[in-house]
Amino acid sequence: DVQLQASGGGLVQAGGSLRLSCKVSRFTFDNYAIGWFRQAPGKEREGVSCISRSDGTLYYLDSVKGRFALFSDNTRNTVYLQMNSLKPEDTAVYFCAAGSTYGCNNPIRVFEYDYWGQGTQVTVSS
After folding, report:
1. In terms of CB atoms within 10 Å, which of 13, 17, 62, 81 comes out highest?
2. Three-state SS for 75?
3. Whether the Cβ atoms of residue 58 and residue 104 lie closer than 8 Å to each other
C-alpha cells in the first residue's frame, strides 16, 4: 500500500506563506494521482490541488488559483504545496492523498482517493 505523510503546517499571518510537504512511500509502478485536501472545523473536506503521475495533469480549487502551487520532486518521492498570500479562510487541516484509479480530475473529489496521510494544521491569523 501507498503511505503518505504530510508536514509543514504552522501559524502564519494573513498574506504570508507556507510550504507543505507530502512524503510518499511504499508506492508501486501503478499510475496514480496525488491530491491535497483540507478540512476546516464544521466543514466538508475539499480538494485543493492534484497532480497526475502519468501525464502531469494539474488542477486547483478555484479559490486558491494564483496563490497555491503544487510541485513534485520525483527523486525524493515528495510532493509540495506552496501556499502564498494566505487568507484566514485557508485555515484548515491539510491532507495529502493518493488515488489509484481515477487520476487527477476537476473537481478534485475526496472519494477518488484511496490512501491518506494524517494531516497537518495550517492556521492563518488576520
Report:
1. 81
2. helix
3. yes
Residue type, 94: Y
Residue 110 carries which DSSP code? G
Using CA atoms, how far apart are residues 102 and 119, in angstroms rounded to an integer?
22
Q: In whole angstroms, what is the distance from residue 88 CA to residue 108 CA? A: 22
Reading the block at residue 55, the C-alpha cell is 501525464
DSSP string, 19-46: EEEEEEES--SS--EEEEEEE-TTS--E
Query: For residue 38, which amino acid is it?
Result: R
Give tens-digit pLDDT for 53-76. Answer: 888 899 999 999 999 999 999 889
Cβ neighbour number for residue 33 with a 10 Å cutoff: 24
On average, the pLDDT of the chain sits at 94
Rounded Cα distance between 123 and 106, Å, is 26
